[in-house]
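Question thread 4412

I'm putting together a teaching handout and wanted feedback from people who do this every day. The idea is simple: show students a protein as raw sequence, then show them the C-alpha cells that encode its fold, then repeat with a second protein so they can compare. Below is the first pair exactly as I plan to print it.
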Amino acid sequence: MKKLLASIVKDFRLLLRDKVGLILMFAMPILLVLVITSLQNNTFKIVNDHQVPLVFFNQDGEDVSLELEKALRQVGMFDLIVDSKASNASDISNTMSERDALVGLYLPKGFSQRITQNAEQLTSQAMSDLGVGFGDLQLSERGITDLDVYYSPVLQESYRMAVEGALKSSLQVVQSRKMLNLIYQTLNESEMPEEVEQDLLHNEIVLNTQTVTNDGSGKIPNATQHNVPAWTIFAMFFMVTSLGSSLVREKLNGSFIRLKTMPGGYLAGIFSKQLVYLAVALVQVVVIFSIGAWVFPHIGLPALELPSDLLALFMVSVVSGLCAISYALCLGVYSNTEEQTNGFGAVSIVILAALGGILVPSFAMPDSFRVFTAISPLHWCLEAYYELFLASGKLTDLWPTLWPILAITLFLQTLAFVGLKRKNLI
C-alpha cells in the first residue's frame, strides 16, 4: 500500500509540473464551453425570441394590403418595416441593406383588387355548387396574385422555409376573411359582424407542445444542457497529451526499467497513474459543471440544471473518465516519441469528437458518417450524459449506453496490457 501511495504522490507531482497538459485539460475546455455555449445560445434566441426584420414594400395601399400588414404583425415572427417608396429590384435591395433587413415582401399596385377578384371567383364557384345565387355582385376575371419575396443571402434555408410558411399563413388569413365576408353578404344581404368574423377566423386547434423526458417534467433543453457535458467529455479525453506523454517520457529516460526492478513491478505504477488521472477527470467534471451552474447565469447564459440522480451522474463521470484514461494509456504505450503522442492524440480526439457528436450533433451528420459514430467512445459518453441531462434518466436507464463504454474501456486496457508485455515492460 505504501508503494502505491508513493507512486501516486510521484505521478501527482509529475502532473503539476506539466503546465501545458494542465492548460489543455482545464483552460482550453473552459474557454470552449464558454464560447460555444454563448454562440449557440444566441442562435437559439434568434430562432425562438428574436423577430426577423422584414421590409414591407407596399405599393398598393388599399384595404386588403393593410389587412395583410396587420396579419403579418400578428404572426409575431417579423419585425415589420413598412416602405412605400421602392419601385424596382435595385431600390428594394438598397432599402434592405440600409435597414439590415433579412426579408423583403413587395406588393404591387392592384394587389387588393386581385385578391378581391380571386375571392369573388372562388365564392361564386362555391355558391353555384350549393345552388345559391350570388346576388348582384359583379364578378370579374380571376386575378393573378403572385408576390415577390426577397431574401438576404445570409438567411439559411431553414429560416426561409419558416418565413415562407408565415407569409403563406398571413395571405391565407386575408383571403379567407374576404371570402367569408362575401359568403355572409350573399346569404344574409348584410356585412358580417366583426365578432362573427373573429369567431370564424380564430376558431383554430391549439397545439400543446411538450418535450418527452423520462420523469415527465417536460423541460426544454437549452445550449447549456447540450454543451457543458459535451465539452467536459472533450476535456477528459484531451488528457492524452499529458498521460500519454508521461508514459513516453518514462520509456525514453529509462524510468520503466528502474520501476520494473522495484518490488511490486510496473503494474502498480500504471495503476497509480490511472487513479491520479481519474481524480483529474472528476475534478474537470466538478470545475466545468460548477461554471455552468454558477457562472453562466452571471454572463447571460442559462444555468446548468444538474440531474436529480447524482449517483448516476457520478457513475457516468467515472466510467467516462476511465474510458478516456484507457485511450491515453493505450496511445502512450504504443507511441515511441512525445511528438507522436501529442500529434496523433490531439488529432484523433478531434476526429472522434466530430464523429461522436461533440462538434456537430449526430442527427445533423450525413448518413454516410452517422454509421461511424458507434466507434467513437466520445459518442457513448455523450449519450450517457444526454440521458441524464436532456431526458432526465435514472441509473437504470443508462445501461444501454454504459455497456459500450465499458466494452471500449476493457478493449483499450487489454490492448495496452498486450503492448506492455510485447515491449517487456511488465
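The second pair follows. I'd like the answer to focus on this one:
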Amino acid sequence: MAETPPINYGIALVGSGSATPKQRLTNDQLGLRVDTSDSWISSRTGIHSRRVIGSGETLTGLSVRAAQGATTFARWDPESIDLVILATSTPDDLFGSAPQIQAELGAKNAVAFDLTAACSGFLFALVTASQFLRNGSMRRAIVIGADQLTRWVNWDDRRSCVLFGDGAGAIALEATDINHDGVIAFSLKSDGSRGDCLNLPNVQNFQPLVEGLVHQTGGFLPIQMNGQEVYKFAVREVPSILEDLLSGSNVAPETLDWLLLHQANQRILDAVADRFSIPKTKVLSNLANYGNTSAATIPLMLDEAVQDGRIKRGDLIATSGFGAGLSWGAALLRWQGPI
C-alpha cells in the first residue's frame, strides 16, 4: 500500500490589530524624575516617548483589544478560531493569561496558552502557531505579542528606564493552499550562555518554614541589562541570521518591500538596513512613539503599517526579533490581508 503523503498547508497572514495604553510618558517628563533629557535619550535610542499602563488598564485588556482587531480585520467569527497564543514575559497571571483572552474574545473553541521568549516572543509564537496550521491539525490562529515591562523597570536607573514601554499587537493566521504560503521561511536561535546580559531574575529571599527548612518567597528584581553587550549582540547576530535566511530562500535584499525588526534601538535598525543596502524608506519604525514594548513591537508596527496603507497585499517582509535569553530569530513573510 502506498504511503499517504503528509498534509502540508500554506499559512496566510490575513489580519492584524493592536492596542496601547492611554498614558504617554515623554522624555522631558522622565527628565523630571532622573538626570536625563530628550536630546540624550533620542540621540542614543531614537525614542521620544512611550506608553505606560495606568489605573483601569491591564495587559490582558490590551491583548484582548489587539486580538479583537485582528479577528475583525480577518472577518472571522471568533468561534472559528482554533488557537490563541500569547507571547509575553509579563502576564497578569503567572499561570497564564491566554485562556482569559480566549474567553473574552469569544473564541470558545480555541486552545490557548502563553509562550515566553522575551523580545523574540512574538516571532517564536508566530512560528509555533504556523506549525499547527501547516500540518492540518488547526485552521485558524490568533498570535498576540504583549508586554508590560514598565512594571519591572527601575524608574531611578536612567540607563534602563528610558527604554521600555507597554503595548500589544496581534496577527490572524489561516491555513491556505501551499502555493499561497505567507510564512516563506524562518530561523530561530537561542544562546543561554549569554543570558546574563538581559534578564528579570527572581528575588533570592528565603524565609523559615519549619524547623530546619526554609522556603523561597515569590517576587522579581527589576530588569537587569548590560546595554553595550545587548547592542553588540544585536548588530552582529541579526544581520547574520537575516543573511542566511535570505540566501537560503533565494531572495535578494533589494526585492524586499519592508524590513521589520524588533524595535529596540534606532541605531540597530539603521545598522541592519545599511548592512543590506536597504533604503530607510523601507525600514519600518515606530520606536520614537512607543519605545521597546518587547514581544509587542513587531505586531504593533505591522498593524500600524497595514492600517495606514504602507503594507499592501502581496508585500514581502523580512522580520527579526532578538533579546533576552539570549534568543533571536528571523522570518520571511508575505502579507495577504483577508482572503
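Top answer:
Good format. For the second protein you could add a caption like this: The first strand starts at residue 10 and ends at 19. The chain has a mean pLDDT of 94.
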